[in-house]
Amino acid sequence: MFSLKFAYVAELDVALHEAIRYYNEQQINPKLKHLSL
Hints:
By secondary structure, this protein is mainly α. 92% of the residues lie in helices and 0% in strands.
């Protein structure tokens, strides 16, 4: 159970970092948004 909880927390941490990185990229490069659309 501990390892499962640890894996869940680690995955959540990765997801959080991905979200922050995506948000920062959008803030820094607004032009990127138009290109991706």
